[in-house]
Write a structure and sequence with these properties.
The chain has 325 residues and is an alpha/beta fold. The protein has two domains: 130 residues, Rossmann fold (3-Layer(aba) Sandwich); 183 residues, 3-Layer(aba) Sandwich (Rossmann fold), CATH 3.40.50.720. The chain contains twelve helices and twelve strands. The chain has a seven-stranded parallel beta sheet, with helices on both faces. Strands 2-1-3-4-5 form a five-stranded parallel beta sheet, covered by helices on one side. The site of (2R)-2,3-dihydroxypropanoic acid (DGY) has 6 residues, from loops.
Length: 325
């Protein structure tokens, strides 16, 4: 069968597809495909492995009648119209779990880097600003025994919470759509309202999916309820915080610092004022970017396609409704 992949695919996954006898075409140019290009290509394909911000909407599914399966190489599926895929009877899969530890590592890294102004101070050496020892300069804040607030306590949030508890003895509070009894048991996490999360967190780390409910949720009103000493971390999706409101909160000492692995838009402009603030650290959406995790994601994405083209149920189905679930 013919499989199209919107990026150069890690070898571990590519080999599986070839060993299963499929013909693979990769989009190897260093740019995103336009939706017209994606549709023109996918019209004749049996399967799509989608990597990057490809809009998989009603127009796409209506135009690509030959497609039998879509496999996303990501855990997030905010670029997918689930209802449109289901209406077109196309099963779609994602790559959960395998990236939880790597993504939580980045949230943890950002938290520590922000608390010690690490990226800003690294840049100050490059700029020739390391002069003499001043006991009052370059001061960060400590994390020991502080309160970690997790917004979206699923697999990634749980990994972040475990690290923070083990390293800094942090208390964990969280806000979710539903209480997570397993996590409460495992790490003694306490469920709080959204307002309590904002008011009580010393570090507030966002791990929830992007949805109608979470889009723009961290806005001026939300930041105004946070502690002036607090750190805001987002490794989920940039659309969940309002960037102008975040900048305003940082510039006016409404919150202390921010660590972002996701921005809105991506890429972030190189002259964005957030990049020049002492207690802000920004990374270019690298949550799952380790050799081990990207290989695991590619293998999972390939296995999903292979299973589906063999007529089996997708192991990591996003829209179980296509199977009448
Ligand atoms: C994911 O897997 O959702 C990552 O954020 C990459 O988009």
């Amino acid at each position: 069968m013919n499989i199209f992949i919107t990026r150069k695919f890690p070898d571990a996954g590519l080999q599986l597809l070839k060993d299963a006898g499929h013909t693979v075409t990769e989009h190897t140019e260093q740019r995103n495909l336009t939706q017209d290009e994606l549709i023109a290509t996918c019209k004749t394909q049996d399967a799509l492995i989608s990597i990057g911000p490809n809009k998989l909407n009603d127009t796409f599914f209506k135009a690509c009648g030959n497609l039998k399966v879509v496999s996303l190489m990501s855990v997030g599926y905010d670029n997918l119209d689930v209802a449109a895929a289901t209406k077109a009877k196309i099963p779609v899969s994602n790559t959960p779990d395998v990236l939880s530890k790597a993504t939580a590592d980045v949230a943890f890294l950002l938290m520590i880097a922000v608390s010690r102004k690490a990226f800003y101070l690294h840049q100050s050496i490059i700029d020739g600003d390391w002069d003499f020892y001043d006991p009052n300069a370059n001061l960060g804040i400590e994390l020991y025994n502080k309160t970690l607030g997790i917004f979206g306590l699923g697999k990634i949030g749980l990994e972040m919470a475990k690290k923070c508890k083990a390293a800094y003895g942090m208390d964990v509070i969280y806000h979710n759509r539903h209480q997570n009894a397993e996590a409460e048991e495992e790490i003694d996490a306490k469920y709080v309202s959204f307002d309590e999360l904002l008011q009580q967190s010393d570090v507030l780390s966002v791990h929830a999916n992007l949805s109608k409910e979470t889009k723009g949720l961290f806005n001026k009103d939300a930041f105004s309820k946070m502690k002036p000493t607090s750190i805001f971390i987002n490794t989920a999706r940039g659309e969940e915080h309002n960037e102008a409101d975040l900048l305003h909160a940082l510039q006016n000492n409404i919150i202390w610092g921010a660590g972002l692995d996701v921005t809105n838009p991506e890429p972030m402009a190189k002259d964005n004022p957030l990049l020049f603030m002492p207690s802000v650290c920004v990374l270019p959406h690298i949550g799952s970017a380790t050799v081990e995790t990207r290989n695991a994601m590619a293998v999972m994405a390939a296995q999903n396609v292979i299973a589906s083209l063999q007529g089996e149920k997708l192991p990591n189905i996003v829209n179980g409704e296509v199977y009448g679930e």
